[in-house]
Amino acid sequence: MPYLGSEDVVKELKKALCNPHIQADRLRYRNVIQRVIRMPGVQEYIQQPILNGLRDKASYVRRVAVLGCAKMHNLHGDSEVDGALVNELYSLLRDQDPIVVVNCLRSLEEILKQEGGVVINKPIAHHLLNRMSKLDQWGQAEVLNFLLRYQPRSEEELFDILNLLDSFLKSSSPGVVMGATKLFLILAKKFPHVQTDVLVRVKGPLLAACSSESRELCFAALCHVRQILHSLPGHFSSHYKKFFCSYSEPHYIKLQKVEVLCELVNDENVQQVLEELRGYCTDVSADFAQAAIFAIGGIARTYTDQCVQILTELLGLRQEHITTVVVQTFRDLVWLCPQCTEAVCQALPGCEENIQDSEGKQALIWLLGVHGERIPNAPYILEDFVENVKSETFPAVKMELLTALVRLFLSRPAECQDMLGRLLYYCIEEEKNMAVRDRGLFYYRLLLVGIDEVKRILCSPKSDPSLGLLEDQAERPVNSWASDFNTLVPVYGKARWATISKCVGAEHGGSERSHTASFAVSGHLISEENKGRVQEAPDSETLMLVPNCQLTAEYFEKTWLSLEVAHQQVLPWQGEVHPDTLQMALQVVNIQTIAMSRAGSQPWKAYLSAQDDTGCLFLTELLLESENSEMQISVKQSEARTETLNSFMSVLETVIGTIGDIKS
Amino acid sequence: MISQFFILSSKGDPLIYKDFRGDSGGRDVAELFYRKLTGLPGDESPVVMHHDDRHFIHIRHSSLYLVATTSENISPFSLLELLSRLATLLGDYCGSLSEGTISRNVALVYEILDEVLDYGYVQTTSTEMLRNFIQTEAVVSKPFSLFDLSSVGLFGAETQQSKVAPSSAASRPVLSSRSDQSQKNEVFLDVVERLSVLIASNGSLLKVDVQGEIRLKSFLPSGSEMRIGLTEEFCVGKSELRGYGPGIRVDEVSFHSSVNLDEFESHRILRLQPPQGELTVMRYQLSDDLPSPLPFRLFPSVQWDRGSGRLQVYLKLRCDLPPKSQALNVRLHLPLPRGVVSLSQELSSPEQKAELGEGALRWDLPRVQGGSQLSGLFQMDVPGLPGPPSHGPSTSAPPLGLGPASLSFELPRHTCSGLQVRFLRLSFRPCSNANPHKWVRHLSHSDAYVIRI
Known about the structure:
CATH architecture of the largest domain in chain B: Sandwich
Oligomer: heterodimer
Number of domains of chain B: 3
Helix content of chain A: 55-70%
Distance between the termini of chain B: 50 Å
Structural class of chain A: mainly alpha
Largest sheet of chain A: 5 strands, antiparallel
Number of domains of chain A: 5
Helix content of chain B: 10-25%
CATH superfamily of the largest domain in chain B: Mu homology domain, subdomain B
Number of helices of chain B: 7
């Protein structure tokens, strides 16, 4: 429980606050105002001391008082914003003391949270930029963050600002350097060459942080290196040696470094990187060794021959934890790079002795089933598994064994028939696990129907190189992550961040949707024409679709009929639609499906809905007619805003494009 | 914006707990953090963790956890930097940072936190500004030790030892007892380099990387100016040329913001007015081009008899330092194939020690003189390692799982880049009369010194 203060303390505090000259004693004033945060019942006493403090001669008192305003506001709960106070704080941005200035920004940010935070217009932005050199590193980092919301009006102004910021890229504090980098990336949104330039300049500080003595800083820097590599794959290639792991580093740093190595590999350094990674494969820590093997598997997609050779050598070690991961890597590799099948098939015999875990066994059995005709003793290896099926503990392995054996039976019937019979008998008669038993029954009945039917069902493609493209993220534009730079997002990783923000969003969702008209600020720092524009700015930047917006069908229908079509577009589309796939894909980007036709019906229709964080609704109709191979999209929007509509369309297009690609 | 800050001991006991916003959790947050930390799966990083809508960010510093919680998506760099700055600051005020000093100085720590952070926002971390507001004195416990007496010579004469700063000299509070100010006029200037090296199995150098720092710890009254002269042949970047010889070349340099570089271009002199406490004046990096030979060379030879499972490793370690220098606490770590059971050793001198542990061989050499050569012969039995039959009779090939060897060591009075501090001059305000002590130290140590076998 937070300490709320006893009766006596509150009383004492009230008494202290009643003193008209309380701010005369700086330390005492600080102590009193600092303790105010969690004490109910002193609200009415603190206003006057804080207002006095704002005008005090001593900068120390002003610093405390400025933050005191935020405390006072938060203490009152959902009270109205005090316009006079806000104006006073805006004017204090011109204060002599740099810490007062930064505190003003912080305080305004908290007080104006409902209105979207402190407004940074042109005079304020330029004032802050000029004061930057007076601030300490914490102040600089924070102001750089506030400046992110300022949008220069002309190109000239933009480059003026960039010039002013240049010196901060050389700061000795990584926080300031990263803050400046982010500001550069965001401001130079439309100038890719400037962005690339900045990323080149930040290379030095980032690499220095990567080899910093502080493990934690090193980790954060590595995460950001990975982020940059997603967009500029060759960016750190010449510095690959900096990412070699050392024996004494903690596990989490080693894993990040291996990932980085895996991503920066190119023709020149592949030899050295692989050499290094091979050293890690025999590391004492099994986890790290496995991560290194998976990394080699990742590189194998581009440099297949060298990697397969290394992996094959590793099998010679006959260590369980290595063999199982190598076999799993082989499985993925064969699927993505069919040209290495031959080499893998030669390496496989003998592995079965060193695999004990479920994943590894499944991978081996799958490989034997699918490519059994190339491995002379495949049936005999599988026979061992069939012999020992009674003592097998993992149901997944048994299911895999069934499938593999039926597959192998198709290509080498003479050697497999007897064993298959035994396995089917065991699975149907003795097996306790229902899933395995069902699978057995299924194959039994399938075999009864006839061999052609079995072939039709089981002879699926044996490899699919195109999947590799799906899995490797294509080069993402810098703008797609610029707003995440220097935040916790790269440190958690995008995927984990999504789940985190989802559960946070579920708790807080809906409460902050009110988007009231711009708050009247009449300070002399804000000119009237500027204000509206600045407040619009954050909205147009990004589209945030709210995860769980559930519309009822009736509501959808009513809204759909009441709105005009805002946008219509036609996308190419081949063949049929698989509603489930599409629905899942849309779900990922937070677009909900209201209704959909069955697969194969003519014409095919779907109705989708989505809502962004400002409460604007997007209603969509997809229409697929059989004669022409195109998908018609019509979108209606509850509030007419072109920028958000455009970003919504691009999201939708990406999803539909991706689904279309997978099918064709 | 920080919601809470706390310091945990290595066992998870909360030593310091401060809630800045009053909006979350309470003290059990510290316990929650420790539970999450210890229960973390191996592949996740502990640096940033989250629970509900709260992020925990921490650093480990001298076996303490300094943790901040926040509910905002803030810059990890700034926050980590702040935490390490807090660690230095608390170290400065309490003498050194450890569980003991923190728990002896709880009041002082809270006082500092009050000044540094208000409502979760950083106010200032400069010692200069803080000292006006910090009233509490640090409590230092000085255990009595006979060692202290040994530095007092016969009849009070100065012995050799008293000219050397005792190792604990720098670990005392910066701002304590105003009474014996005169005695505390001391400056420590350390040039510390971390060396990471990777040598291929054929002896060729794959990677050299030197991370250097000039650290200053000043106990002088602030405001006194200081001039640090570096080696004049110090060049920055690949192209610059200075002096006659090959020069001392580094790739990149960054300075603390308080350093005045007016004389740097012409005379390689850094001017600054250091605040009391610790400060990193300059950082530099150097890769691939080392002016001096590497401190160590290892010549391994491995005999591997697959039939009997006998593995014989002969290691010869040559120290290429100048003869007057020496390396301390040298330790060689050699991972071995799994299942190694016994070890017999023949070492070249009695003070060395070698043992097996955690699947690796550890060879300790407490002191290696420059120019000397040491060797060790190790014989091991590896029963459970049948080699791949396809490779035939090549018995000399080392078994997989052996190596790479890594060395750790310290090189006192030696910098790998060759950078030296020529002089350290203090220009004093007239009021102070005592002649300050200046200690300049040079030190290199290994970060990762890996030799493939």
